[in-house]
Every structure is written in structure tokens, then in C-alpha cells.
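Quick one: structure for this chain?
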Amino acid sequence: MSYFQTSFSTLCISILGIVFLPLNLTAQYSVPTQSYVGIEKVFPSFSLTRAELEESQVLTDLNERFESDWVKEYYSVTIETIHEGKVVTTQGKNETLTKEQKAMLVAADPGAEFKVIVNYLPNNSLKVNEEKVLDFKCFVEPESPAKFGSELSLDQYLQSQIMSKVPNKTLEGYDLGAYRFTVNESGNIIEPTVFWSSGSEWLDALCIDVICEMPKWVPAQYESGLTHSEDKVLLVGNTENCMIHTLNLDDSEFALPYTKD
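Got it. Here's what it folds into:
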């Protein structure tokens, strides 16, 4: 092959690369076309399972956002629990839970939040370093979560009641509808609300109607038999929407994709 032929071939390949590069980049960053429909549990800001509570040794076990590096010196660590309907206060000296604190956390009444109050000197370089107070409440989750009360599976119900009725192109790109509600202590649905609109008033109205008309649920329950309310959210659309992270869900993987024919 002559030098001219070689150079011409190289030039053609380079031009093709330039032409098709934007197409490749567009494909790499294309908007997902699958939609998700499902109901997820919304967790309180700070919550633990019973097993996690029983294994707790330090403050970070009760609140993963607590950083011991914040503290230069502890003055007191107070934990308020509810036992047989009465407030019980236990004291500690630092981030390590005392035997009494751990015992009262385990003995606390099911369904009752406990409160942690930390008095400390911040770890900083300020000339005037004053005592600070940090407090938070934590909830112990029921052993049995709320369950959909129907012979149909929840997946089948949502597909038939919502997705089968959604016209093509109602949900595109990163569109997401999020509709919060509560399953109360009796298993009834209360306080349905549009947390985040799908962008379609028709779809928002349909989802709220479906929530209101759902069969009665089996409420969340502790081993003691005590039932408790549980917050839920119905999600319809693309779960890569940035609003998904404001819902405090337990999982970022959604296993029920739906593609409209």
C-alpha cells in the first residue's frame, strides 16, 4: 500500500471516529426507559432492629451519623427510655454505653422511642470553646413489618390497578411519582398524600385513589403482640430520580421493572 493510500485510510478512520463519538457518548448516557412500580417502607430518621439494639455498645451503634471525632471531652451521656409507661433515665460518662443503659434499652416498652442526650466539649480550635448539647430520638422497628392483605400479590395488584392503565409516554426519562401513606395500628390506610408529583395530574389522582381503595393491611407487629403504625410510599416511575434519596428507604435496589408494550 502506498503512503498516500495509508494516509487516506488513516484520515477516514479519524473522521469516522469524530462523527460517531458523540453517538457513542449519547448512548452511554441515555435516559433509562424502564419504570418501576412498588411500595416501599419509609424508615424514621433513626431506627434500629431489635437485634441491632441488643448488640449496641457505643453511641455510633444507636446513631450511625454520630462521630466521636466531634468530641474533645464528654460531660455526660443521658439516655431516656420508657419502661412500663414511665420515663427511666440512665447516665453514662462517654460514648461507651454502660451496663445499666444497655439493660434499660432492651427492657424499654415496645413502640416507644428512646432519647439520647450528649453534653460535650467540641473538638475544635476555637479560642472560646463552649459546652454543646446533641440529642436525638431513636425507634426500634417491629419484628414483623406491615403486610399487604390480599390474595393477589402486591406486585400483581399494582400492575393491574396502575401500570396497566398508564398510557404510553406518560412517564418518560427521570419522571417519578411518590405517594406517601400510613398503615395504622389496625391495618387501615390513613393520610395518603402526593409527596412528589409524577408531572401528570391524572396519574397522581389515580395513585391516590388506588392507595385509598387498597385492601386492609396486616399491621406491623412486635413479638409482644403490640401493633404499630408504619409509613409507606408508592413509587411509580424512574427510581434514578434524585428525589428518591429524600424518602429514607431501606434499599436502593428496586426489583420490579415494568416496560410498557
